[in-house]
Amino acid sequence: MAQQNQEKQAKGGKDEGIATRAQDYSQWYLDIIKRAELAENSAVRGCMVIRPHGYTIWEKMQRELDDRFKATGHVNAYFPLFIPLSFLTKEEKHASGFAKECAVVTHHRLMSKDGEVIVDPESKLEEPLVVRPTSETIIWSQYKNWIQSYRDLPLLINQWANVCRWEMRTRLFLRTAEFLWQEGHTAHASEAEAREETRRMLGVYADFAENVMAMPVVQGAKSPGETFPGAVQSLCIEAMMQDGKALQAGTSHYLGQNFAKSADVKFLNKEGQLEYVYATSWGVSTRLIGGLIMTHSDDNGLVCPPKLAPIHVVVVPIFRKDDEKAKVMEESDKVAAELRAQGLTVKIDDRDMHPGAKYYEWEMKGVPLRIEIGPKDIEKGSLCLVRRFVLEQEGESEQDQRKRKKTFPPRAEALASVKKLLDEMQGQLLDRAKAMRAKRTRVIDSIADFEKFFNDEGGGFAWVHWAGNAEQEGELAERFKTSVRCIPFEDQIPAEAKGEGKCILTGQPSMHRIVMAKAY
RNA sequence: CGGGGCGUAGCUCAGUUUGGUAGAGCGCGUGGUUUGGGACCACGAGGCCGCAGGUUCAAAUCCUGUCGCCCCGACCA
Q1: ipTM of the complex
Q2: In terms of Cα–Cα distance, which of A165, A173, A295, A184 is closest to A243?
Q3: Are A380 and A405 found together in one domain?
Q4: What is the mean pLDDT of residues A185-213?
């Protein structure tokens, strides 16, 4: 950003630019988060402060997801932040999977000494407490008391919580030491039912991603190497960001009887026999906000799908003199009231600033629709509607595109069209994201083409036949920084990628193609 | 955790080579003129130069340590 700002200053421009995607994609991502006031770093390494504009997006995500969880029969509950160390050691694979990234509480008291506050060495806990990296262990220790009979099943519980994973390298939203998420934990009387639940909740995530976030995803299973510690099988949704890298946007795990065994949770089935319970867990996190940014935003700032936009419409009053101001403000209030009556969130920006400055600011913050109201509009009985974005047309100048964003419909017509317009924009975002993904998706049958795709053509999703083992996957990771993102379900495979073939690396027969990509 | 870069006003950065009273632009406050794509004038507020030691008559500047941020690796949702 420094270089760009210097350029802008040299041109006499304003010191308010962000990096462009072409210049520096990761800087662009960070600039947007900062300038749209979504989040910022905190005094604690790796932990972020989610600012109101960002948190509102999360609240809207929560509402949409929670409604879907309830509609599929789940209820919310809350389990503790702290997990006794001994709990975490019960399930061996699970424990070793998280061992390297756990925060541990060892004392319970502070004291003053020589003017400083120190940890009181006398207050050492008998058993250290682990700050939850996920809650399977503590939840299942409780489920033991709740489940005796098949009549107690299925147990369908979700919790909204924070979790802590002590990451070496963090990035706002995508990977932070503490993050917010939901974790569903269900118990079932049969493997089939648990597997069905695993798949159902992945479907909920996919529906949410596409229809609320306007972010298309590929649904499938994780390779053994990427399976959740302690799970029998992990399912995932994978989205493609604008730089062609994959983002795991949600996971749903079939846990088999692993946690039931480690927590000793048995139930009496209809036949009167004791059996271990079958389990699932599934989660999405604030990482989705990172995915949202990298799917839709542009060089002017955040682009937010209307369904998640903290503000749907910003009204910018325009006036010169006091008598104009009175009329314009009155009309602005009326317009806002009529839109609010339609259930829309409307902000009137009446700050004493030039209108242009406000336009830039609200574009940066991703408000989908702007209404400019000035004396001319009142006189003509029309409104000036400005969309946050229009679909790109080739060879179009910035000026022309800006014009295309604006319309001046009669007042009544304008107010009646706002919801339709927002819906249309929601749809356009999904279409645009799908087109972007299609452009960076290839069916690939040789390592040479694979290399060309990732090294020369920018990369993306490569649909390849794969029969390699974990070690061979590692070889590709070393050479191209790619990994198996998911083993897609049959219905997720595009027509041109269907059918059997030979492994791209080993030449061994392969039943169907998988998705390889670089990943966040 | 390894390699590289950077920490000076809210932001972006000069100043560090060669030690000598802390700078610019933007932003912020007040007053006035302005307001249909980032307004202008005047006045003003704001920094123990990331932090802690050390060298020195004197440290933003030299030395040591430490913390944080960014980029690239390894690890990960």
Answers
A1: 0.87
A2: A295
A3: yes
A4: 98
